[in-house]
Amino acid sequence: MKLSIIIVEYHCMDEVDDCVKSIDKYMQDVEKECLIISNSEYSDDEVGVFQKQLPSTKIINTQGNEGYSTGVNTGIEYASGEYVYVINPDGLVTDSNVTKMMEEMDKEPDWVLSGPQVVDENFVVQPSCRRFPRLWTFLLVRSGLSVLPGADKERARYLMEDFDRKTRKDVDWITGGAMLVKASALRTVGGMDERFFMYMEDVDWCHMCWDKGYKVKYEPCSVVIHPSKHRSIKGSIIDKMMSHHVRMHFISLMRYFMKWGIK
Questions:
Q1: Is 151 helix (H, G, I), strand (E, B) or coil?
Q2: Cβ(114)–Cβ(171) under 8 Å?
């Protein structure tokens, strides 16, 4: 088996359906398997219905939501491909160039993780490759403090605004919406760190690759659509700082720096 595709879903099987259709359309010539890891606690009957709707996939019902990283690792346990392609349920494949990505990675033994170009629904290129965060990056980029002086400079550094994203490039990390990984490297690197329930697991995984002497690269020959979903959090800066997603991101960020230190 050349490729194992892993989709972790949580109450979004409608999005999974569109994602799988795009995979079936553009990856017809790839020897592959598509594994859907469901964290939604569906009944066996519900899973049976979904399985009939998605005959080209294998649905694995985890019977509970233990987090995104655990879902990915569950998929890795079932995967038999030489490569593992992790893609978000709302991601849409737009071409067959994953084959080219694998061919290029085959040429370089130390290149073990790659990310395609990611665009939004209007085909605007997204910052899917980034530099590692600093301790204050979260506050200046993701929180209500993004209006402070110096925030623009840190955002530009972190989001690699100096890179046009038109060419292949070694990068610190690839966002987890679409990641292609050599299965052989996972014997050394390991799967995602399950201490990261949500957020930062992709940053950490790429950091683990670099720590083991491997390379992470951005490869724009393949394009994936990831629709933008802007959450508008109303209220004061304090309200925004206390939102669930911001708090979850902050907790994961602290775990990341406890693991890797402050640089």
A1: helix
A2: no
Sign of the alpha-carbon torsion through 149, 162, 210, 222? positive
Give Cα 220 to chain centroid, integer Å: 15
Rounded to two decimals, the pTM is: 0.91
Place of tokens 């402050």: 262
pLDDT in tens, 175-227: 999 999 999 999 999 999 999 998 999 999 999 999 999 999 999 999 999 99
Contact 109, 229 (CB under 8 A): no
Distance of CA 164 to the CA centre of its chain: 21
Calpha distance 137→152 (Å, rounded): 11
pLDDT, residue 246, reads 73
CB atoms within 10 A of CB 103: 10
Q: What is the pLDDT of residues 76-94, one digit of tens each?
A: 999 999 999 999 999 999 9
Q: Cα dist. 202→13, 93, 164, 173, 194 in Å? A: 22, 20, 22, 7, 11
Q: What is the DSSP letter of 185?
A: G
